[in-house]
Amino acid sequence: MTDSACEVQSRCWGFGGVPQFSLSPPGLWELEGVDVGYFSKLWVNQAMKKVISIEFFGMQRAVTKTDSIYMPIAENMRVNDALEYVKNQYPKLPLDKGMVLITVNQEMASLDTMLKANDSVLFLPFISGG
Amino acid sequence: MEILQQAEYEPARVVGGYTDRILRVDLSKQKIAIQELPPDFKNKYVGGRGYALKLIWDDTTTKTRYDSPDNILVMASGPLGNEPGFPGTGKFIVGTISPLTDTFIDSNVGGHFGPLLKLAGFDALAVSGISQKEVVILIDSDAGTISIAAAPAYDEEIDNGALSFGQKLLRDVNDGEFSDSFAAVTVGRGASNARFGIVNSLYFDRRRNRIRSKQAGRGGTGTVMRFKRLRGIVVRSSLPKANGNNAIDREGVREAGSHLKEVVSQSDPKQLNLSAWGTTILSEYMDKFHLFPINNYQYGQSPESSQLFARVFFDKYFSKKIPDGCYYGCNLACAKGAENVELTRGPRAGQNVSVDGPEYETVGAVSCLGIFDPQFVMEYNWYCDEYGLDTISTGVTIAFFMECFERGFLTARDIGYELTFGNIEAAGRLLHEIARGEGFGKVAGQGVARGKKWVAEKYATRHDTSEKAALAELDKFGMEVKGLEFSMYVSKESLAQQGGYGFALKGPQHDEAWLIFIDQVHKELPTFEHKANALKWFPLIRTWFNATGLCKLPWIDVRNPEAANTSEPAKNLPTLAHYVKYLNSTTGSNKRLEDVLEDSERLYILQKLVNLRQGKGTRASDQIPQRAMGPAFFNEYESRAEYYDKWLQERLGDGELLPATPEQRHKLLMEKRMQAYQQLCDIVYEKKGFTSEGIPKRETVRKFGLLDKQANQLLDRFGV
Q: Has the ipTM of the complex gone over 0.90?
């Protein structure tokens, strides 16, 4: 496991009522056949097979240096958890309140929207068409 | 240069944003005249589009067509153009009767021409008549002369190119040196042979040390200019640009400008970051939400689209270390460009050129052809600019004929070769044929509306069917309304944007209303009432930008953080407050946003009257192709069947089952989409003060002081 991947897991598991796991337990599994960009070897504990993807566009990609990341989720996690997760990972990413539109599976979502496995979360700028 | 006619003049001083003068040039009579405007003219018609509309309304008739001597080509900034202390003030409009739509068209364009024309003493330039020989107009406020001169002949390559000719001309008029006291507008060879010729706006960029160009792209304004045998117009003024408008309240202008610049500098880098990426950044968002036009708008997304995303152009082409912008003082600075791009195809292959762009619309035009090659985008961009062709209409027209070929309406024999989606060689060949007026280019240069009729005739003859039946099929995917080709957004899933395109008075260009995201993604327009309100409000505020000489992007594409605390964030009202302050400080008025909207509505109604007079003003003219409403053909439905079935089930409700077969579901879905559009027409017309046929009611026209003799007769004719 790379240092950065350790860091991701560590931070992710440390908030929002998510159960804590050892960073290098036996039986780790690797996501296969998916582009996980910067975190090219994202390891997730077998107990947390449920993941969502968070995609980055434009300026966000320039900051994060990746197209998308995967985030493990547990029961009752909400969009706000994903937002906090991204803020923790990328403190320089501007995600100020009121300045981004959040979608889950390309539908508008609020911070309270519940997340489920395989959801795709986007934090979009406002686009009004020139 | 051989001077054919010259007049001396004393340039009027700009006061409060206006000179109160229009320069009128009649090329048939080689007559140069200065029209003094009465004081109430500016109060009623504002500037820019408003001035162009009033001139067209008064001085042309129902019989005027693009090539009529009485057609007028108007170029006008507006009271708020020409202020480096405020972002986005280099805009001017080019307005005329269009070769594509046969009614009023205007296209807004950046650069230095509009500001310099005002500094040279004119709120607008109006050119009528047709010259007997190719000419240029020279407006030299430093010398106090206005001249009509024989167009210089250089060599064939330069003379055929709008960019090449303009660069040479700008050097020639200033003893071989470029200077930012000069700007020009020019047309190229393509404008002689196609109905969608553009006017190039050329200016000297000191930082890049080269001539750059912006384009008045839509509706064939360049074709009109070329038909008048007017190859170029040069304007010169050495007056200082700072406080060029001699604002009534200079401090107010400074405050409004510094507030808006702060919003732009703080927010744009956190949002679309147009200052770094330009408008190409939109491609990936459009693709993500099925809005990126692929294969003539059949699909909104493609696995290959990523080759056309902003990062590709940013990494490979854009010059990054030089600040951009099409006019002084704009810190949004979205006008990206590239130097030393080697052309690999076409008649100029092997040459290195500078490309101004691409803008999102040009990228979309290429995806519309099913082509995902960024080098082709750069070359397509440059060739279109050099030939003087609209990248949008060129792309949509070629895409239409590609689909005609693929669906069997045309054969390789009709075209001369196999014109298929994704075929770079064929697309490039047709582009050059259009510009030269050769081969199948002669047909394609007429645009989609006329192309449909040509294909229908061919097809009907060959297949023993009626032209009407063939045309009905072509109408489904011929992406034009009123004769103008669509701009580059798939509107299938946004009813509000379908209206934005259908009701747009000039034809389906999004500068009246771009509502896709707030409708389709934000879900801020859930009811017909919401959509209709947006379809009234947005065209009015956007009209105001086109009347005042301002760029819309610092308002609409940079969300002010304070907008989140307002009831309608999409209107970005906190930023609009800076614009209203800028207006009042410049002109000395005391207007509120409501007053601004009322001024715009007057211009909107006047444009509607012009449309009505020219045969494009009723409900029939607002109808859009089926493809703009949904999956017109079964292959489009199949590509997103699950999504469409879900959409249909939601409309049917839980009590009603979906039809059994996919074909039946597709048919029902399209019926529902078409019904919804007609419902939208009804409610929007009511909101706008129109009859159910889309004709302005007499009281609506009277309310805005537009019920003159001509308007009375027109409304009588329509029984209103």
A: no
